[in-house]
């Protein structure tokens, strides 16, 4: 896949994996048109997702989104949850991601977490190689999310497959993540984006 196509797919993924509000619904015809530039396998997956989101409408699509991503930790869109779990280490991972964004001129709005998959995809679409490296780093987490989603949904699974197709498999092979670690002794709960959190006005 050419660089332009990869960045286009990342931008489409950022849009379609975000909260499916009326704004996204109005953008779907443009997404479908842009998807025609993609190679056939990814184009088919994206167009299937667009058609399903159009069929459902904002209310039903929102309900489906909540069922998929807001009720189970194993299907959340915050990728450091898969690598760090509910531990203090996750806070350090989020801070590191924010620093990478700042180094490339990106400042997140209030309420956005840097490990939210649509944010990572938008960064990859705009920043190129630095964003691609972050996606490669989180490939095992993304694969774990895809595996979990695939048991209950096909449309979002297709979108995740399309995104994964843009991230090369490491030479050492695909690493499988264990269950996320949890720290419980002597710690207060740390709320870092699970189930999912969205900025005010995103619902």
List the helices and strands and how they pair.
Layout: H1 3-16, H2 22-35, H3 40-69, H4 80-84, H5 88-103, H6 117-127, H7 129-137, H8 139-149, H9 155-164
Which descriptors would you attach to this protein?
about 200 residues; mainly alpha; 9 helices; about 60% helix; about 0% strand; disordered C terminus
Average residue-wise pLDDT: 86
Could you give the distance between the termini?
34 Å
Task: List the helices and strands in order.
Answer: HHHHHHHHH
User: Biggest sheet, in brief?
Assistant: none
In one word, what is the shape? globular
Helix content: 55-70%
Low-confidence stretches: 183-192, 194-203
User: Tally the helices: what do you get?
Assistant: 9
Let me know the number of strands. 0
Helix/strand-derived category reads mainly alpha
User: What gyration radius follows from the Cα positions, in whole Å?
Assistant: 16 Å
- How many domains, in number, for the residues? 1
Strand content: under 5%
Describe the protein.
This protein is mainly α and 203 residues long. It has one domain. It is built from 9 helices and no strands. Helix 6 packs antiparallel against helix 7 (129-137). Mean pLDDT is 86; it is low at 183-192 and 194-203.
